[in-house]
Amino acid sequence: MPPRDTASTSPTREAASPQARPRHRATLKDVARLAGVSPMTVSNVVNGTLRGYNEETRDRVLQAVERANYRPDIAARSLRTDRRMAVGMLVVQNGRRFLADPYITSLIDGLCAGLNQRGYSLVLQGLHVDDLASASLIQQLQTDGLCVLMSGNFMANTAFRGTLKAMGQPIVMFQQPEPDPEGDICSLRQDDFEGGRGVCEHLVQRGARHIVAIVPELDWPAMQARVAGARSFIETSRTRSKLTVLTSTDESASATQGALEGFIASNAQFDAIFAGNDQMAIAAHRLLTRRQVRIPEDVMVAGFNGLEFIDYFGTRLTTVRSPAFELGQLGAYHMVKRIETGSFDTRAITLPTALMIGTTS
Amino acid sequence: MPPRDTASTSPTREAASPQARPRHRATLKDVARLAGVSPMTVSNVVNGTLRGYNEETRDRVLQAVERANYRPDIAARSLRTDRRMAVGMLVVQNGRRFLADPYITSLIDGLCAGLNQRGYSLVLQGLHVDDLASASLIQQLQTDGLCVLMSGNFMANTAFRGTLKAMGQPIVMFQQPEPDPEGDICSLRQDDFEGGRGVCEHLVQRGARHIVAIVPELDWPAMQARVAGARSFIETSRTRSKLTVLTSTDESASATQGALEGFIASNAQFDAIFAGNDQMAIAAHRLLTRRQVRIPEDVMVAGFNGLEFIDYFGTRLTTVRSPAFELGQLGAYHMVKRIETGSFDTRAITLPTALMIGTTS
User: Fold this and answer.
1) B86-189+326-353: same fold as B6-72?
2) How far apart are CA A173 and CA A289, in angstroms?
3) Residues of A whose CB is below 8 A from B72
4) Cα separation, B330 vs B190, whole angstroms
5) Could you read off the pLDDT of A293-313 as tens digits, one per residue?
6) Which residue ranges are recorded for the region named Disordered (chains A, B) (predicted)?
7) CATH number for the B86-189+326-353 domain, one of 3.40.50.2300, 3.40.50.720, 3.40.50.300, 3.90.400.10?
8) What is the pLDDT of residues B269-295, one digit of tens each?
9) Nearest-CA residue of chain B relative to A101?
10) Is the ipTM of this complex over 0.85?
11) Are A349 and A319 spatial neighbours (Cβ–Cβ below 8 Å)?
């Protein structure tokens, strides 16, 4: 048997064995020849414009697609058009399970819905804070743009900033301070400051004289803005109420309750708790209830975010609604617009938050 | 000025304006020339092997990367290696917000962690059930394999099966009956049947004479398996207890409570509720508590899934733990192995579920 020309190798023989990997990528023409139809018919069937063909033709094409191991040549097309039709979402976290946080889930949900609606895919990438410096994973993303959400102040990390820059892609940054105005970056935030201010004003109006704000130690701009807003109200209004900021090692129920137990043991008097998020507010509520403290009569409790899961908590918590889903949607809108027009038409957007008054204040 | 040779066009002039898009893709050599370093140095900086270079060299390279609008040529590399280093996850849902379901979130979390750990990205795609037939979005996924999770029995949809097949990619199918043994498919499930059987046995052992199973109308194999398991226990054990299956229009709290109200209004006597998931169990628990029914003395309540959010429900619910995160991790493991070896080494895996006894039974 004469040696075969590799350039014209028929992929069908090899594809017959599921183990074998064909040496060249089958083309539309290969499939058409196998199915005994025109390349146009193959294209129509493969691209989902199935109407107008009878079952038999379609089956024949699909069988040929399988035998030839044909894959629509999107990588080649994207080299030509310079468009991947995909946007990356990088979630930088301290923990291992980055989707465990309901705020992040809700934001990604909005982002994915917004991208899919415009024909773009979402490439999701969780990254532990320790892997920031190498971050070689980021560079493998085949995307037209990159969204970044960080639970922490990781932009201080020089190597990480360098890696992001080296991507050469437009960036939508969620919940971080406004970045370098020179960069190809759009910054999307919610008004955490105003949210914190508003909830503090509400607690003072309801009679709070000493508010304890409890937040995780984590150096996260969004969390700090909530506390700064509360402090700003205390300092700029003519109230005689005061604010104490308490930090817990993290945002878990046990850490929150531990920090609060320590504060209570110091014999401090307080009549309101403003927690950095609802998980922490619920943990505080449970600790106080266990200690026979009446809520809101003895101590008022307020949280932050107002996401759906708080419905499972029996009591209607006073909180601040975070527009996490909407931030994600907006990120999709501006990213796609940037990809398609070549520039962001805005560099920074802040969405409002809203006070939700429950039965705990 | 003589016309320039397009092949040697310097991209720097065009890249200076943020609006302009360079006509050719800058290469490693272009960047090296601009930065006055070797291509190897550029490669090292860009690929995150930053050690060994001083700040000044790195900055010079990164500036050149930006000026040249250089992007590592992954699309070209993947054409050569036939590997995208990305796996798609298709979530087919009835609702609009597909990440709102905590089971799905948990599974995707495990899948993403498992893929990232092995150097693969996750491409996430939500798809409404009405868009199944066209599903042109699926075909744009630039992936080495496709994972599919459907909240419904959508495999009955012929056009959708055809579209999946035409992808020509290995498939990991979550929570569906074992598929066509001919396909390049691995089926990963949890033991919903045994979970349903176990919870039913537990309720009967605790004295239940009439168990009401409440599930959404949705034709979803996993949900049906839970009920089938419960029914199997009633039929095969020598118990005189009985089981009634009640359906609600969907799994929302209002639909669950509506269906249960209707059943109660019919004067039916029952002493246990087995809900298809924990959201429904919590809704039932609240309705009964509002009606002064004592739990578990008058009526026992059990759910399914045991995901983290039930911690926010004050009462420790009896439920069945679903290994959603582990299913996702396992999916990543088998998908990557399939991509790298050319075949799945197993076609079907079922993970066990586990009864978690709380204070509601």
Assistant:
1) no
2) 39
3) 139
4) 11
5) 999 999 999 999 999 889 899
6) 1-24
7) 3.40.50.2300
8) 999 999 999 999 999 999 999 999 999
9) B105
10) no
11) no
Q: What are the structure tokens assigned to A168, written together?
A: 């050469």
- Cβ-contact B275, B214 below 8 angstroms: yes
Residues B87-108 have pLDDT tens digits of: 999 888 776 677 778 899 999 9
Token pair of B113, please?
A: 């962690």
Q: Report the C-alpha dihedral over residues A74, B119, A95, A111, rounded to 10 degrees.
A: 0
Question: Whole-angstrom Cα distance, residue B269 to residue B217?
Answer: 23
Domain spanning A192-321, CATH class: alpha beta
- Shortest CB distance from A126 goes to which of B50, B112, B312? B112
Instruction: Report the CATH fold assignment for A6-72.
Output: 434 Repressor (Amino-terminal Domain) (1.10.260)
- Residue A333 and residue B198: Cα distance in Å, rounded? 48
Contact A304, A226 (CB under 8 A): yes
Cβ neighbours of B79 in A, within 8 Å = 25, 75-76, 79
Closest Cβ–Cβ partner in B71, B119, B311 for A137: B119
| Residues in CB range of B244: below 8 A, 6 or more apart | B210, B211, B212, B213, B263, B268, B270
- Look at chain A and count its residues: 361
CA distance to partner chain B, nearest, from residue A125 (Å): 6
For the domain covering A83-189+326-353, report its CATH number: 3.40.50.2300
Look at residue B137 and tell me whether its pLDDT is greater than 80. Answer: no
pLDDT value of position B132 = 67
CB atoms A75 and B84 under 8 Å: yes
Q: Tell which phi-psi region holds residue B216, choosing left (phi > 0), alpha (psi between -120 and 50) or beta.
A: beta
Tokens of B21: 């898009």
* Burial class (CB within 10 angstroms; exposed 0-12, middle 13-18, buried 19+) of A130: exposed
What is the per-residue pLDDT across A206-231, written as a single tens digit (0 to 9) for each?
999 999 999 998 778 899 999 999 99
Q: Which of B282, B327, B299 is nearest to B147 (CA)?
A: B327
**CB pair distance less than 8 Å for B65 and A165:** yes
pLDDT higher than threshold 80 for residue A50? no
Helix or strand (DSSP H, E) at A89: strand A86-93
Domain range summary for chain B, segments of one domain joined by +:
6-72, 86-189+326-353, 192-321
Structure tokens at B171: 């498939």
